[in-house]
Amino acid sequence: MSETASSGAGIAPSRQLVAGLVLALANFMVILDLSIANVSIPHIAGNLGITLEQGAWVITSYAVAEAICVPLTGWVAGRFGSVRTFLFSMVGFGICSFLCGISVTMGMLVASRIGQGIFGAFLMPMSQTLLLSVFPPEKRNMAMGLWAVTLLMGPALGPMIGGYLTENYSWHWIFLINLPVAILCIVVGFALLRPIETERQILPIDYVGLALLVLWVGCLQIVLDLGRNHDWFADPMIVALAITSAVGFIVFIIWELGEDHPIVDLRVLRHRGFSVSLTVLSLAFAGYFAGFVVVPQWQQAWLGFPATAAGLSSSFSAMGGLITAPVVAFLMSRLDLRVLVSCGVTWIAAMTLVRTTWTTDSDFWTLSIPQFVQGLGTPFMMLPLMTLTLNTVEENEVASAAGLQSFMRTIATAVATSITLSYWGDTQRIARSDAVAVLQPEAAQASLSSLGFPSEQIRQVLSNMVELEATTLALIHTFWATTAVLLFAAALIWLAPRPSKSGGITMGH
């Protein structure tokens, strides 16, 4: 990478903010599409005449394609140039979004979602890498703060925006809404980003590594997405996919470490600061994301919240992050980054613990305020961790490191979703059995009977009450488990070496 690009001098200071906003907006659009379709699956299934299980492939296809392609970012950017990769990916993402929006069959929709996942996979790490080239060192912390907020806002706002568009317009608009954003990013990106283009390196293609990556990541993502609905390892298909993924992963590691021009540069893991920070980032992000998985579902299915209200409640976390991001950017140049990470993750764990006090009578603000307070601590976790991961690798490894960082966030999201929903469901069944074993319904039955309720309706009312309480108790147990994971991550960061310098994200050493 040229000195001009690495110093941010290639773009005039008056244009740096606009370029940074466009890059952050591109990342937000991709992250948003991970969750925007979740609440629309019943509408999509009904409109296309398919089952809900078939409709789930709208989510799975995107996640699988993205998970496979994210680690390839370093190789693709090196071969074609960072800015070319970003702009071409944005064009592809826009086209595939349009095709999703006009889809009339399940096959067309899934194929278009795969295209979205492929192109979106490169946009996440490239937007992050290019931000480091746009801004000079003294402004990079603030720029990455903006980028991190979009990373956190996507999962929070996705269900709310998706629910609003689906309920008031049509499910087609959850994809068509990407078009103006994509056009804006393409036009502004082409006008402003070309001065920081990186040199192209013509490298041989690691076909074996690429095939192994597709094999093990694809199988793993399908296991994580479908395993819960297939009773996990009670289904021979899930067992076969899990074994294939495990064997493929081992062979992939061995092959890539011995390849001169690997498709995924795993050698960046030799840096202890990068490896530890990446592990902490994965655990902390999974623990943070777990709340976005279960809370909106609990609010909608059991408390009667509309999709827009549930999404708004979750979005308070991102609002809190907007407030403290500038503070964190200021502190990063003055404090040990490990202190900020440990305090931030511990703060999120404490707010997760507060949510164990929720009950079935909790109102909107009782549920939303802890989300907001949790959001205040999120930049303390995300910004220093991203700095630690990218600051501990060589200059020519930044794109590969950013790709692996995005890959681990993607996998952490998938694992958190599967494990959290499975744990929540299993705990709910146990809690329901325990409640039924000690329940003495005679008094309640007599009271309802005196009000004129028929016996069938009385049994249904009592069953609903037990289900509601059991589900809420299971939610509390899920928060306890999540708190333990977060506290472990807060302690683990101290295995990373002390940063040689505080603050500023650099383009390498």
TrEMBL record:
Pfam families: MFS_1. PROSITE patterns: MFS. Keywords: Cell membrane, Membrane, Transmembrane, Transmembrane helix, Transport. It is a multi-pass membrane protein. The chain crosses the membrane at residues 17-36, 56-78, 85-111, 117-135, 142-165, 171-193, 205-224, 236-255, 276-295, 307-332, 339-358, 406-424, 474-496. InterPro entries: EmrB-like, MFS, MFS_dom, MFS_trans_sf. Residues 19-501 form the Major facilitator superfamily (MFS) profile domain. GO terms for cellular component: plasma membrane. GO terms for molecular function: transmembrane transporter activity. The keyword Transport applies. The keyword Transport applies. It is found in: Cell membrane. Belongs to the major facilitator superfamily. EmrB family. NCBIfam families: efflux_EmrB (TIGR00711). This is Putative MFS permease.
